[in-house]
Amino acid sequence: IDGIFEVKARARSQTFPQAVSGWSSGLSVTISDLIKYNLTVHVVPEGAGTIDKNPSRSNYDPAEWVTLTAIPKTKDGNIRVEAESGTLSGEIAVGNDGEASSNQYIYGTTRTPRSGSAEIRFEVSEFGTYYIWGRCYALSSTEDSFFLIMDNSTDTLTWHLAQEYNVWKWQKVSDWHVEQTFDLAPGWHTITIVQRDINARLDNLLITSDPTYFWNILYLGQMLCPVRDRG
To answer: What span, in angstroms and rounded, lies between the C-alpha atoms of 200 and 145?
Structure first.
Protein backbone atom coordinates (compact mmCIF):
# COMPACT_ATOMS: atom_id res chain seq x y z
CA ILE A 1 0.00 0.00 0.00
CA ASP A 2 1.37 3.38 -0.99
CA GLY A 3 -0.07 6.84 -0.53
CA ILE A 4 -1.13 9.54 1.92
CA PHE A 5 -3.56 8.42 4.63
CA GLU A 6 -5.40 10.17 7.44
CA VAL A 7 -4.97 8.53 10.87
CA LYS A 8 -7.46 9.07 13.71
CA ALA A 9 -7.87 7.45 17.14
CA ARG A 10 -10.51 7.04 19.82
CA ALA A 11 -10.59 5.50 23.31
CA ARG A 12 -12.81 2.72 24.64
CA SER A 13 -13.61 2.19 28.34
CA GLN A 14 -12.26 -1.11 29.66
CA THR A 15 -14.93 -1.24 32.38
CA PHE A 16 -17.82 -0.30 30.09
CA PRO A 17 -16.79 -1.32 26.53
CA GLN A 18 -19.90 0.30 25.09
CA ALA A 19 -18.52 3.70 26.13
CA VAL A 20 -16.39 4.99 23.26
CA SER A 21 -14.95 8.47 22.81
CA GLY A 22 -15.32 10.56 19.69
CA TRP A 23 -12.65 10.44 17.02
CA SER A 24 -9.53 12.52 17.46
CA SER A 25 -8.43 15.08 14.91
CA GLY A 26 -6.74 13.58 11.88
CA LEU A 27 -3.05 13.26 11.11
CA SER A 28 -1.89 12.86 7.51
CA VAL A 29 0.84 10.27 7.02
CA THR A 30 2.65 8.99 3.95
CA ILE A 31 2.95 5.19 3.78
CA SER A 32 5.12 3.18 1.42
CA ASP A 33 5.17 -0.60 0.94
CA LEU A 34 8.96 -0.45 1.00
CA ILE A 35 9.22 0.73 4.62
CA LYS A 36 8.26 -0.97 7.90
CA TYR A 37 6.40 1.19 10.41
CA ASN A 38 6.01 1.21 14.17
CA LEU A 39 2.75 2.26 15.82
CA THR A 40 3.45 4.09 19.08
CA VAL A 41 0.74 5.35 21.42
CA HIS A 42 1.19 8.02 24.09
CA VAL A 43 -1.29 9.18 26.71
CA VAL A 44 -1.56 12.97 27.02
CA PRO A 45 -1.26 14.44 29.57
CA GLU A 46 1.37 12.05 30.88
CA GLY A 47 -0.07 9.75 33.52
CA ALA A 48 -3.71 10.38 32.58
CA GLY A 49 -4.21 6.66 32.04
CA THR A 50 -2.43 3.40 31.39
CA ILE A 51 -2.02 1.35 28.22
CA ASP A 52 -2.36 -2.35 28.88
CA LYS A 53 -0.66 -3.37 25.66
CA ASN A 54 2.43 -1.95 23.99
CA PRO A 55 1.44 -1.58 20.35
CA SER A 56 4.91 -0.73 18.99
CA ARG A 57 5.49 -3.28 16.25
CA SER A 58 6.36 -3.52 12.58
CA ASN A 59 3.13 -5.24 11.53
CA TYR A 60 -0.23 -3.73 12.47
CA ASP A 61 -3.39 -5.82 12.82
CA PRO A 62 -6.45 -3.53 12.58
CA ALA A 63 -8.48 -6.04 14.64
CA GLU A 64 -6.37 -5.38 17.74
CA TRP A 65 -7.24 -2.76 20.37
CA VAL A 66 -5.24 -0.51 22.60
CA THR A 67 -7.16 0.01 25.86
CA LEU A 68 -6.82 3.14 27.99
CA THR A 69 -7.76 2.77 31.65
CA ALA A 70 -8.81 5.97 33.42
CA ILE A 71 -7.80 6.56 37.05
CA PRO A 72 -10.79 8.44 38.49
CA LYS A 73 -11.02 10.81 41.41
CA THR A 74 -14.58 10.86 42.69
CA LYS A 75 -16.64 13.77 43.98
CA ASP A 76 -15.89 12.89 47.62
CA GLY A 77 -12.20 13.63 46.99
CA ASN A 78 -11.02 10.04 47.43
CA ILE A 79 -9.30 7.89 44.84
CA ARG A 80 -10.34 4.40 43.82
CA VAL A 81 -8.26 2.24 41.51
CA GLU A 82 -8.97 -1.24 40.19
CA ALA A 83 -6.02 -3.51 40.96
CA GLU A 84 -6.22 -5.16 37.54
CA SER A 85 -5.78 -1.76 35.85
CA GLY A 86 -2.15 -1.71 37.02
CA THR A 87 0.87 -2.85 35.04
CA LEU A 88 1.24 -6.58 35.76
CA SER A 89 4.45 -8.56 35.42
CA GLY A 90 5.65 -12.05 36.29
CA GLU A 91 3.45 -14.48 38.19
CA ILE A 92 0.56 -12.09 38.87
CA ALA A 93 -2.67 -12.86 37.05
CA VAL A 94 -6.18 -11.47 36.68
CA GLY A 95 -8.99 -13.63 38.05
CA ASN A 96 -12.75 -13.39 37.58
CA ASP A 97 -15.33 -13.20 40.36
CA GLY A 98 -18.84 -11.80 40.18
CA GLU A 99 -18.42 -10.50 43.74
CA ALA A 100 -15.39 -8.38 42.79
CA SER A 101 -15.61 -4.78 41.63
CA SER A 102 -15.71 -4.88 37.82
CA ASN A 103 -15.80 -8.69 38.27
CA GLN A 104 -12.00 -8.98 38.35
CA TYR A 105 -9.09 -9.07 40.81
CA ILE A 106 -5.36 -9.87 40.84
CA TYR A 107 -3.59 -12.74 42.60
CA GLY A 108 -0.25 -14.53 42.79
CA THR A 109 -0.04 -17.79 40.86
CA THR A 110 3.03 -19.33 42.51
CA ARG A 111 4.33 -20.10 46.00
CA THR A 112 7.63 -18.39 45.20
CA PRO A 113 7.64 -14.91 46.83
CA ARG A 114 8.49 -11.84 44.73
CA SER A 115 7.86 -13.67 41.47
CA GLY A 116 5.34 -11.12 40.19
CA SER A 117 4.06 -7.60 40.76
CA ALA A 118 1.42 -5.02 39.87
CA GLU A 119 2.30 -1.32 39.60
CA ILE A 120 -0.74 0.84 40.33
CA ARG A 121 -0.54 4.60 39.66
CA PHE A 122 -2.62 7.35 41.21
CA GLU A 123 -2.49 11.13 41.60
CA VAL A 124 -2.99 13.33 44.67
CA SER A 125 -3.57 17.07 44.44
CA GLU A 126 -2.09 18.25 47.74
CA PHE A 127 0.46 17.45 50.43
CA GLY A 128 -0.93 15.30 53.20
CA THR A 129 -1.06 12.09 55.16
CA TYR A 130 -2.93 9.41 53.24
CA TYR A 131 -4.57 6.16 54.27
CA ILE A 132 -4.78 3.25 51.86
CA TRP A 133 -7.38 0.50 51.97
CA GLY A 134 -7.62 -2.60 49.82
CA ARG A 135 -10.56 -4.85 49.13
CA CYS A 136 -8.97 -8.24 49.68
CA TYR A 137 -9.74 -11.95 49.87
CA ALA A 138 -7.70 -14.54 51.78
CA LEU A 139 -8.21 -18.27 51.34
CA SER A 140 -6.16 -19.53 54.31
CA SER A 141 -3.32 -18.61 56.68
CA THR A 142 -0.82 -19.48 53.93
CA GLU A 143 -2.68 -17.50 51.26
CA ASP A 144 -3.18 -14.16 52.97
CA SER A 145 -0.42 -11.61 52.37
CA PHE A 146 1.26 -9.27 49.89
CA PHE A 147 4.39 -7.16 49.84
CA LEU A 148 3.76 -3.46 49.17
CA ILE A 149 6.15 -0.68 48.11
CA MET A 150 5.21 3.00 47.86
CA ASP A 151 7.01 4.83 45.04
CA ASN A 152 10.76 4.21 45.21
CA SER A 153 10.86 3.50 48.94
CA THR A 154 13.54 1.15 50.21
CA ASP A 155 11.01 -0.12 52.78
CA THR A 156 8.97 -3.12 51.68
CA LEU A 157 5.82 -3.56 53.74
CA THR A 158 4.53 -7.03 54.57
CA TRP A 159 0.76 -6.68 54.37
CA HIS A 160 -0.95 -9.54 56.22
CA LEU A 161 -4.70 -9.79 55.77
CA ALA A 162 -7.17 -10.41 58.57
CA GLN A 163 -7.80 -14.05 59.40
CA GLU A 164 -11.29 -14.00 57.96
CA TYR A 165 -11.21 -16.40 55.06
CA ASN A 166 -13.21 -16.82 51.87
CA VAL A 167 -14.87 -13.41 52.04
CA TRP A 168 -14.14 -10.06 50.38
CA LYS A 169 -13.19 -7.52 53.03
CA TRP A 170 -11.88 -3.93 53.06
CA GLN A 171 -8.57 -3.84 54.95
CA LYS A 172 -6.17 -1.03 55.72
CA VAL A 173 -2.60 -1.39 54.46
CA SER A 174 -0.38 -2.60 57.29
CA ASP A 175 3.15 -3.82 57.91
CA TRP A 176 3.20 -6.98 60.02
CA HIS A 177 -0.30 -6.05 61.29
CA VAL A 178 0.69 -2.45 62.16
CA GLU A 179 -1.51 -0.05 60.18
CA GLN A 180 0.40 2.37 57.95
CA THR A 181 0.01 5.96 56.76
CA PHE A 182 1.77 7.61 53.83
CA ASP A 183 2.98 11.22 53.59
CA LEU A 184 2.61 12.17 49.94
CA ALA A 185 3.42 15.24 47.85
CA PRO A 186 1.16 16.48 45.04
CA GLY A 187 1.57 14.53 41.82
CA TRP A 188 1.66 10.97 40.59
CA HIS A 189 2.61 8.04 42.82
CA THR A 190 3.01 4.31 42.33
CA ILE A 191 1.94 1.50 44.64
CA THR A 192 3.70 -1.75 43.80
CA ILE A 193 1.93 -4.89 44.98
CA VAL A 194 4.46 -7.73 45.05
CA GLN A 195 3.37 -11.36 45.20
CA ARG A 196 4.10 -12.98 48.58
CA ASP A 197 1.51 -15.73 49.07
CA ILE A 198 -0.11 -17.73 46.34
CA ASN A 199 -3.80 -16.96 45.72
CA ALA A 200 -4.06 -13.86 47.97
CA ARG A 201 -6.48 -11.60 46.07
CA LEU A 202 -6.70 -7.83 45.66
CA ASP A 203 -9.77 -6.31 44.04
CA ASN A 204 -9.22 -2.54 44.29
CA LEU A 205 -7.63 0.22 46.34
CA LEU A 206 -9.02 3.32 48.03
CA ILE A 207 -6.68 6.23 48.84
CA THR A 208 -8.00 8.91 51.21
CA SER A 209 -6.64 11.74 53.36
CA ASP A 210 -9.60 11.41 55.74
CA PRO A 211 -8.72 9.11 58.68
CA THR A 212 -12.41 8.65 59.53
CA TYR A 213 -13.84 8.33 56.03
CA PHE A 214 -13.87 4.58 55.72
CA TRP A 215 -15.34 3.96 59.16
CA ASN A 216 -18.07 6.54 58.56
CA ILE A 217 -19.01 4.78 55.36
CA LEU A 218 -19.13 1.39 57.04
CA TYR A 219 -21.14 2.45 60.05
CA LEU A 220 -23.50 4.81 58.23
CA GLY A 221 -24.19 2.12 55.67
CA GLN A 222 -23.42 4.34 52.68
CA MET A 223 -21.97 3.01 49.46
CA LEU A 224 -18.17 3.16 49.31
CA CYS A 225 -18.03 2.18 45.65
CA PRO A 226 -20.17 0.06 43.34
CA VAL A 227 -19.16 -3.32 44.74
CA ARG A 228 -20.97 -6.00 46.67
CA ASP A 229 -19.02 -6.26 49.91
CA ARG A 230 -19.85 -8.87 52.52
CA GLY A 231 -17.10 -7.64 54.84
So the answer is: 6
